[in-house]
Each structure stands twice: as structure tokens, then as C-alpha cells.
Amino acid sequence: MSANNHNLLSVLNLRDPQRVFSPALITESGATWSYSDLAMLSAKLAAVLSRLGVVKGDRVSAQVIKSPESLCLYFACLQVGAIYHPLNPAYSDRELAYFLEDAGPKVFVCTPDREAQSQSVGRAAKVEQILTLGENGRGSLLEKVTDEALETTVALEGSAPAALLYSSGTTGRPKGIVLTHDNLSNNALALVEIWQFSDADVLLHTLPIFHVHGLFVACHCALISGASMLWHTSFSAPAVLSQLPRATVFMGVPTYYTRLLQDPDLSPSVCRSIRLFISGSAPLLASTWSEFAVRTGHQILERYGMTETGMTLSNPLMGERKPGSVGFPLPGVEVRIEALEGSTVKGQETGLLMVRGRNVFKEYWGMPEKTRADFSDDGFFKTGDIASIDAEGYYSIVGRSKDMIISGGLNIYPKEIEQVLDEHPQVMESAVIGIPDSDYGERVIALIVPAAPVDDESSLIGSLVALCTEELAGFKRPKLFRLVDELPRNAMGKVQKTELRKQQLERLA
Q1: Selection from 485, 479, 477 nearest residue 503 by Cα
Q2: Could you tell me which residue, 442 or 300, shows the higher pLDDT?
Q3: Which residues contact 368 (CB under 8 A, 6 or more apart)?
Q4: Residue 344, pLDDT score
Q5: Nearest Cα to 77, choosing from 94, 100, 56?
Q6: What's the CA gap between 33 and 35, in Å, rounded?
Q7: Engineering a disulfide at 329: which of 137, 179, 335, 433 sits with its beta carbon 3.0 to 4.6 angstroms away?
Q8: CB 413 within 8 A of CB 345
């Protein structure tokens, strides 16, 4: 990064002469994309965007499948100074309409199979250009590519917006989160440092790239360090197990690890070349961590982050990694806990996790009052997550403040109850929620996913009641247990407790 140009693309350094012929991506079909290949297509796509009139600060929205070409579209946006706005391909037309109307992109890129619907939604949102990008180079965007390549990269201040990502919108209006070039570059450089990425690494990449984890954490770490990526469009346990011997790093959400554990082929020999397994985007069960260590000989490194802050906390690369903990603050990141009166978890004080640093987002898109409300007077961002810290300085995430249950005037943190329930040998996973109660304000309900088919439901529930009686104070114990086949999750594997509450209230109605 030059003193006068803080454009993230200069940090990614795709045109580094020492790596131009090195493999950057190797696809499932065996096609190899060198760093030079990525740089060239990105520059040609940047020329297309420029011809379409895209300039610094314009938004480019993309609801496309994961591909080398879609990654290059992201780089092209950085090159011209546009704000990249990735969208989950699973969004409905109604959801898409909101995002396009709110973001106001000049260009919207969709998949060819959704062109008709996207044209209709895009025109209603007054999008100027609607193009398509599909598999194997299909689509009208790549048809516009010529031999013309944009040679220059727009010079930007570090505070210039680089990306616009939206919160999940499970409650109220989804918020557009503006991430700057400095936010992304500083966070990526810190991760490369603490996780010791190098050009010797091969990252097995199975994450989606419409999200912080897959696009910014995984791709940035690999590309900044000159590493290679084994590029898979989605996660499949058999495919991952077949590719692990070729990789040195694997990043996944907890669901990936539980599915790997269900495969009998998971073994130490399959993982022999891996130096680092990383988990994030949702809490990793301590039981999953322990079972994975026994089966593979590897301790998963769990870290914590969110869209607004990038990565904030990480267990150490060298040193003890505690199951259920997310470790220590990253270099350059300040973290503090704002106490909540009367709150304790296993003897530790708990409170609202607050973060300050160059990794923290700039603002909510078009929501200045919400931006001000979510920052303290001294510049700390209020994450909304409840955390605790132990005597050795390890942080643990207890839950979301919005998930906190208040029953009889007492604060109850679902995570503490879930940790107890998940220790039961017949429980695969659990989720604890609060629903309205005329007497106590809220009543605690536990949803249980059994580890195997249950012959005697009452017996299992009885043993869970006994476990909670032994391990938990009376006000924390669930008043109702229900067995369910699965828990509703979003695209990154996080349990959607808002949906769970809705389901249970409908059942009780």
C-alpha cells in the first residue's frame, strides 16, 4: 500500500512480479488460475465497469454463484473505487427488492437463470445496468469483456468505502454495513500475522463468498500471503476429505466440522498435511472441538468476529486453545466488557462486548442515528454480544444481548444452559429461548436435537430435567423441553432464534 493510495487492491497485490505465475486458485475441475490470470480478468472487468459509467463511490450489487469470475468482479470494483455489494443467492425477489432499493446500485449482476425476475426487480429499483454472470464464463457481463484492461487503480483514502454488506434482518429493517478499505486491509494483515500465513500455504476454500468469512477472511489471508486456494463452490464432506491431503489450512463453520465427524473416513492420516483448522461464524460446541481433537489429533482454532468489525478475537496459533473460548484480541484491536448488573456465568462477570480499532466499520448505510446509537462516546462499538473473560484473559461469547432472557427480573443467558444440555450423551445440540409468560415475564424453553432416534421421549426429557436440576440454579432451568429434528439456521450456520421463537409461539397459540 503506497502512502497516497490506501486501495485494498494494492494490499492484495495480485500483480506482484514474484507471484504472477503462481497458482492462486485451483478449481474442482482442475483448472488453475494464476495470480496473473486473476489480475488480468479483474482489470478487464474494471474496464467494463468504467465503460458502463461506474465511478468511485458507486455501488455494484452481485447476486451470483461462487466462481473465479465472481471473485474477479469484486477485485474490479476495488480497482475503480466502487463499493462492492454481495448478496446471498438464496434471497427471494422480495428481499432482493429491499436491498437494491436501499443500496441504489448503478450495476446489478445476477445469474442467467434469474435474469427475468432480476430485470423486473432491478427496473423497479431504478438500477441502470442489469447484467448476468454464471458458470464457466457464461453471461452478459463477460460478453462485454474485450482486450481492453484498466491499467490504473483508483487512488483512495483509507476511509473510502470498499464493501456494503447487510445484516441478516431477523428483527426490523436490515442494516447496510459500510466497510472501508482500511477496515478490510488492517484486519486481513492482522490475521496473516497471527495465523502465520505464507506462500507455502494451500487453503481449502469451501465457504460462500457473499459473506465476511469466505470473501474477506479466507480470500484476503490467502492472497495477501501469496498462498494458493483449492476452490470449491460449496461444502461437501466427502470432497473435503479427498482434498485435505493437498491443503495446509481449512476454514469452516461449525456445521462443516460436525458433518466431517459424521464421516467414517475422517482420520489423522487424512489431516496429516493440515497445520491449521479454523472455525467461525457461529459458536463451536465444546463437544465438537473435543471429538475432532480425538479423531484427528488437531485442535480447532476458534475465533470471533462479525460483519461490523471483521475478526476481533482469536485463540492463539501457538499456545493453549480453549474449547468454548474465542481467545484474545487481535493486534490493534481494543476490547472491553461493559458490565451488566447482576450477571454472572460460571463465576465470571459478564457484560456487553465493546470493540474499538481500525477494523470497525464506518457507518450504517443511510442510518446516521443508528450509527451514533451503536457507538459509545469514546468510540467503542457495541457488538450486542454478551461475553465473559476468565482469569487467563480468554474471552468467551455467552450469547446475544437480544437473546438474553429476563425471567422474574433475573438475567438468564441461553448459552450457559445450552452448554449443560449439550453435555448429555443423547443430545446432538440444543437451543434455549424465552417466550412471553404472564407471571415471570419470560419462560425458558429448550429445543433439543437428539443424537439418535428416541424411543422413549419422556425418559430423555426426564434425564435432561435431572441434569439441569443438578447443574443449574432453579430460575435458569427450562420450564419446557421439546424434541425437534433440526434447528433453523442462516447461510453461515447460525441458529435463527427469532424463527425458533416464532415457531414455538405459533405452536402454543
Answers
A1: 485
A2: 300
A3: none
A4: 45
A5: 56
A6: 7
A7: 335
A8: yes
CA of residue 41 relative to chain centroid, distance? 27
DSSP state letters, 197-249: --TT-EEEE-S-SSSIIIIIIIIHHHHHHT-EEEE-SS--HHHHHHHGGG-SE
Contact of 437 with 451, CB cutoff 8 Å:
no
Host H or E run for residue 466: helix 457-471
- Identify whether the C-beta of residue 334 lies closer than 8 Å to the C-beta of residue 378: no
Q: Are 407 and 393 in contact (CB under 8 A)?
A: no
For residue 149, the Cα-to-chain-centroid distance in whole angstroms is 32
Closest by CA to 403, choosing from 414, 416, 418, 395, is 414
The separation between CA 279 and the C-alpha centre of its own chain, rounded to angstroms, equals 10
User: What pTM, to 2 d.p., does this model score?
Assistant: 0.84
Euclidean distance between the first and the last CA atom of the chain, given in angstroms as a whole number: 59
Residues with Cβ < 8 Å from 11, sequence gap 6 or more?
1, 185, 188, 189, 224
Q: Cell for 1?
A: 500500500
Task: Report how far residue 42's alpha carbon sits from residue 367's, in angstroms, rounded to the nearest whole number.
Answer: 32
E strand or H helix that includes residue 49 = helix 35-51
Nearest to 77 by CA among 1, 161, 193, 176: 161
Domain spans in the chain, listed from the N-terminal domain onward: 8-181, 235-402, 404-508
Is the pLDDT reported for residue 155 higher than 60? yes
Nearest to 351 by CA among 310, 309, 398: 398
- Taking only the tens place, the pLDDT of each residue in 47-81 is 999 999 999 999 999 999 999 999 999 999 999 99
Chain Cα centroid distance, residue 49? 28
Q: For the domain covering 8-181, report its CATH number.
A: 3.40.50.12780
Confidence grade of residue 321 (pLDDT, cut at 50, 70, 90): very high
Question: pLDDT tens, 358-400?
Answer: 999 999 999 999 999 999 999 999 998 889 999 999 999 887 7
CATH number of 235-402: 3.40.50.12780
pLDDT at 171 over 70: no
pLDDT higher than threshold 80 for residue 166: yes
Question: What fold, for 404-508?
Answer: GMP Synthetase; Chain A, domain 3 (3.30.300)
